[in-house]
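Quick one - inputs below.
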Amino acid sequence: MPLVLIVDDDADLRRLVQLKLQMHGINTLTSVGGSEALEVLANERVDCVVLDVMMPVLDGIETCRRIREDLGLIDLPVIMLTARARGGDIDAGLAAGASDYVVKPFSPRELLARITSTFRDAA
Amino acid sequence: MGKIMIRPQLDDSPADREGVDTSESARPARRMPPGWLNDRAAPDILAEIVHVQREYVRDGDPQRMWDLLLDAVLRTSFSEYGFIGEMVWSDRGIPNLETRAMVWTGEGQRSVHPDIGLLVSQVIAGEEPVIINRESGRNGDDSRFSPVSGFLGLPLVSADRLVAIIGVTSPAVPYDERLGQLLQPLLSTCASIVESLQSESARNRAVKELEATAGFLQTLFSTAAMGVVVIDGSGRISSANPSAQRSLGFPDGTLLGRRVSDIAAPAHSLRVDRLVTRILNRGMRGEVNNVTIRAARLDGSEFTAEVSVSQMRLGDDSSLVVVFQDITERVDAQRSLAKAAEILDTTPDIVCWGSIGGRLEYLNRSGTSMMGAPDEIRSMILGDDLARFHAAVNAAASTGAWSGELRLVDRNGHVIPASVVILHSRSAENPSLALLARDLSDRYEIDQLKDAFVSNVSHELRTPLTSILGYLELLDEGEELTQPQSDLVAVVRRNGDRLLHLIGEILLVASLDRAESDRKTVLFTADELIRDVAASVEVTAVSKGVRLTCEADPSALICADRAEIYSALVNVVGNAIKFTPTGGDVLIRAQGDGVFTTLTVRDNGIGIDPSDIERVRDRFYRGSLARSNEIQGTGLGLAIVDAVTKRAGGVFTIDSMVGVGTTAQLSLPAADRTI
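Output:
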């Protein structure tokens, strides 16, 4: 059973992703912020991270950078959720080591497809 | 040496010569009769003197006198040929001999003998008669010259001044030494006549000059734009030029005899009277320059005059010349200019003008406080914008005015975005360049704040919208919904989609106003673009029953930000489908000419009302047909298309007829044209 970590400061959105993944038999963990996520990842082995860009305290870009650099999780798939389709967010996310990105508002179906494709890549 | 004029021989008829023995005067065989020197010389010479004096008194024509004098000497010296030259002294005191009359040769074209020069210089040096005789036969060798045996040079001296020289030659006989002495009375007479000829011509010259000067002054007096009035010793006007009469409103001649105070305004007449009296009475070298007084016309109306008074003395008479000019217009112009400057100083805009070359002549208070005191208009423009400024000046020169945005630099080096109007005045007297600039810094700042606000709010809206639409999707997939429930969910989802679309358009519009930094200009084919657009709207077209056709010139290229052009074209095509009823057609076509590629979207839908066509591009403006047909929209679509096309350096046009359809065209550059 794959395990996905969902990181978002918005509880409804965390729940939305969680519900969708559980409906398709994927286990989930959730974190409310970047620091919490890093803590989880230090202790748990997950198969994919869904990471919101715009978060207070530690944002998604910085969290992603630390996942790669501080935790050394080079191959862990990280999918960024961004509200900005244009401009710097996507570039910055990819530069920080994100594997893929989805623009808000996204369809849960589309996000699920992106996540499952990372499992295929890993297999 | 003066120039030698070859004149025809004198051919006076013998009857003209009274008291002269003409029988001996037939040339060229004139010889002195034997004993003439002793017996007849004195009476003959006296007869010649009387003759020339009579002729002078009777006629006095200068040229005839010169001829007569020479002829008299030729006869009395028994010479065949000769000349008379007047001594003319140049301004620098150099003597010059100017030939006045000459009798030289009757036989062919023979030249003056070179020895004449020697003779003349001896006469000038000594002011005494000079005789040079030569041995006969010697000059016969040289056929170029007239045969000469003797030369006789005679000075004409009047009042110790050499006035002329007479040179004569004898062809056969040498001259007797006594001849010079004998001829002296005749020479004196000749000299007096020459002198009087000279003084007469000098007098004539002086008179002519005087007449010319008087004529010039008269012309000046009668045509001058300034009024000129002459006041005699009693303080009355003795003369007035037409300009003075005109500006004072006095009919011809009616100014004469009036007191000068009559033409001053009542409030000034006493002062004027006193001034005139003082200058006249004191006899001082009175001069008053450029005094401003109020003058009065005959009808009592007044005007402002600038007056100069100067004294004129003719013998014991003293009179005054008053020169005046109506400066009412000038004063008024100065006043209105001062008023205008006052108004210009209250505006927060920068107002300045200067020469066509751009030298600054005026800068209002706002301008001075922002810009300091630059010498040139161009000094106020940001360096990066100078090329655009010069292009703007050229545009203004051809059309009269230019308006647009330019960046200025203030006295502290801060860049000021400004809305600028450049005016080019081609008035013949005073061509000038004017610049009006409004500081847009505040507006720019507000615009930026607004854009940032709109962008942030729009992004913040996306997160709750993700939940709304996402949970609806889960609900839909759940399969436990009844049909009425499912219908309600569909309404919620449709409005969620609308909200999402609206947010997207607002974001796009906000981004259009911002700097160009996140735009990527690339070259792409129109064919591929319209295929992508058609694919994205296909579902909508099919579900509405509208036929979509694409035609593309495969070689047509577009150079622009592809994402922007894509969303613009999606908007236009989306509109066409939206406003075309079921069964209609929408055509997307791309044509290129290498410079521009034109994307045409044509439909046979409901069209746009003519009263709306000018405004459909305004943000949030929606046409009356769109509203009355309850077709949904934000009113932002065409505003976006217009802005995107303009930014790409293209043109967006809409042509429509109600009930027939609409044709929209985006003309876009086919190659990179940025410099």
